[in-house]
Amino acid sequence: MKESILSVKNLTVKIGKGRIVDDLSFDVEKGDVLAIIGPNGAGKTTLFKALLGIIPYEGEAKWRPGIKIGYVPQRMEIETDIPLTVFEFLKLRESKNFSKERAVEELKKVSLPEGILKAGLGEISVGQRQRILIAWALLGDPDVLLFDEPTADIDVHGQESIYQLLYHLQDKFELTIILISHDLSIVYKYAEKVLCLNHKQICFGLPDEAMKPEQINKLYASERGFYHHNHDEHNHDEHHH
Predict the structure, then answer these.
(1) Owning domain of residue 22
(2) DSSP secondary structure letter of residue 119
(3) For the whole model, what pTM was predicted?
(4) Cβ distance 202 to 23 under 8 Å?
(5) Which end of the chain has the least Cβ crowding within 10 Å, N or C?
(6) Structural domain includes residue 109
(7) Of the spans 27-31, 186-190, 225-229, which averages the highest pLDDT?
(8) Residue 90: C-alpha distances to residues 99, 107, 137, 144, 189 (Å)
(9) What is the total count of domains within the chain?
(10) How confident is the model at residue 109 (pLDDT cuts 50, 70, 90)?
């Protein structure tokens, strides 16, 4: 029996009179890769903020005591012309026993060369910045990574390699990963569980069982074109890792 890392019961987030997240209940077990899918504005990032305890919510979101959480946002919210090198940025993390060696070690985990430490944040590619955000999260020795899918700033090939990287990290360091994704083929390939969210919980479970066409249609009712475009692209042989 896997151990539960997160237990969510009747989680609701209200903003004004609207319910951005409405009555969610699900569990995440150690080593899971859980993908949260749903249309834009469905409450996915809001759910992350509630799980991180940075916005008020009703209901329960209980992490196992002592769990360390790393959060990787969609993009680096800093001005790219800021005169900060990658090394200086990582140093801001102020993690215990930080050193140049430790920075190099974390960069290795995200497949970046040591030389990038000297580069300015504004000089590197968006994909490299995304990897540096993952390295930043890893500096905190997390048990769980919350990963908000990089938006369209990164091309499909770049996104795929970031997911391969996350999957490799999960495997090697026994991380639990909760990710927000907009790409159903990625979900089929990498996720063990999927939560379909459109303010309410539309589905939760194994991708093959949870993502039935009628569920997906219901989930993306407001974005019809999206589903057909994506669904035609992935072939069903990819379901199993």
Answers:
(1) 1-67+144-151+178-241
(2) S
(3) 0.85
(4) no
(5) N
(6) no
(7) 27-31
(8) 10, 10, 10, 19, 31
(9) 1
(10) very high
223 is written with which tokens?
């974005």
Q: Give the integer Cα–Cα distance in Å for 26 and 8.
A: 5
Residue 39 and residue 220 in contact, taking contact as beta carbons nearer than 8 Å:
yes
Residue 125 lies in a domain: no
Q: Determine the Cα–Cα distance for residues 108 and 214; give it in Å rounded to an integer.
A: 43
> For the chain, where are the alpha helices, taking DSSP H only?
44-51, 86-91, 100-109, 126-138, 156-173, 184-190, 207-210, 213-219, 224-233
**Residue 227: predicted pLDDT:** 44
Residue 213: what residue type? P
Side chain identity at 224, as an amino acid letter?
Answer: R
Which phi and psi (to 5°) does residue 116 adopt? -70, -15
Q: Classify burial at 196, counting beta carbons within 10 Å of its beta carbon; exposed 0-12, middle 13-18, buried 19 or more.
A: buried
- Residue 39 belongs to some domain of the structure: yes
pLDDT band at 67 (very low <50, low <70, confident <90, very high): very high
Tokens 């209940």, located at residue = 25
At 80, the pLDDT band (50, 70, 90 cuts) reads low
* CATH number of domain containing 183: 3.40.50.300
Distance of CA 200 to the CA centre of its chain: 19
C-alpha span between 207 and 15 (Å, rounded): 30
CA 166 from centre of chain: 9
The pLDDT value recorded for residue 235 is: 43
Token pair belonging to 206: 């194994």
Q: What six digits make up the tokens of 31? A: 């080593």
Domain-located, residue 139: no
**Orientation angle between helical segments 156-173 and 126-138, nearest 10 degrees:** 20
Task: Label residue 133 by pLDDT band (50, 70, 90).
Answer: very high
